[in-house]
Amino acid sequence: MSEFNIIRDYFTKATQHTILSVGDDAALISVTTGNELAISADMLVAGTHFFNDADAYKLGWKSLAVNISDMAAMGASPKWATLSIALPHADKHWLSEFSRGFFACATKFKVDLIGGDTTRGPLTISVQIMGEVPHGKAIKRSGAKVGDDIWVSNTLGDAALGLAHLQNKLHDSLQLDDGYIEYCLHALHIPRPRVSLGLQLRYIATSAIDISDGLLSDLGHILTASKVGASIYLNQLPVSAFISQHLDEKQMQQFVLAAGDDYELCFTAPTSANGVITSISDHLNLKLTTIGKITVQQELIVLDCNHQPVTTSKTGFDHFA
Ligand code: ADP
Ligand code: MG
User: Fold this and answer.
1) CA torsion through residues 61, 73, 314, 250, sign
2) Over 60: is that where the pLDDT of 314 sits?
3) Does residue 115 line the site of ligand 1, with CB under 6 A?
4) Which of 29, 117, 120, 123 to mutate to test the pocket of ligand 1 (most atoms within 8 A of CB)?
């Protein structure tokens, strides 16, 4: 199979909001008047971000989903993506499954695949995403204000438990039942970017980030950019019933505070926005929970149920740490 056949058979699909797509030297898009272009890229490397024998459909979904998640965190509407992929060999079954997963995600979130690059090499998937956001309305990391509430969508820690399960790293005392394992693995492999939430938060949140490296690490980026601190309450963190019933404080830190891959949104908003946020939560049928407050002191403090500071060791995933 030639490079051109691969592109034609697996990476060319009708588009919705593109002038010129795959097939020319460059794609052409037109940005809606009054909007800015939000651009982000994320790379997935075999052996670093996924196992070499990972399911191709899930990889396809996730490689786009993690990029769309960055659009959600900016309050941007995802529109266009490019896909640069290095493949060790042209395996038809693998390509067809990967393409199916990628386009399932693209269709769900109305993203056009408009170009990319295809080469031979160690399996590496690099996606660039572009989206639109009304001029000046992107939700940046730098806007958190002292006194703001800190919010998190859905639950945290399930993807990390799924990963630990796959790696056989779960302590014997943590017996997950089959249904919950499946839920955790789904959270790990088929993350659902919170696009609708991001769009609704445009005029409400003072800052936002998607949780890809762990709550402490990602919230830390908001704090650094906003030059503020935060107190968060361990017992307010939104977790599944299993986690709240079975994980001790140390395990909570490991799976809920320090582990990534949830792709939920963490955002800040003034307390006056509580009512609106609650109605957004109802409207989207998505749990939104306040987990703490933005503070003046530029540090991140985790408090236990007695309001005593917990010593946190690991702060999140860093490729070069
Ligand atoms: P060039 O030689 O000009 O870089 P290529 O032969 O690499 O062009 O690509 C041909 C066309 O296919 C271009 O429009 C490019 O954007 C697109 N393309 C290449 N690889 C992919 C891919 N993996 N997914 C989507 N489009 C791709
Ligand atoms: Mg090329």
Assistant:
1) negative
2) no
3) yes
4) 117
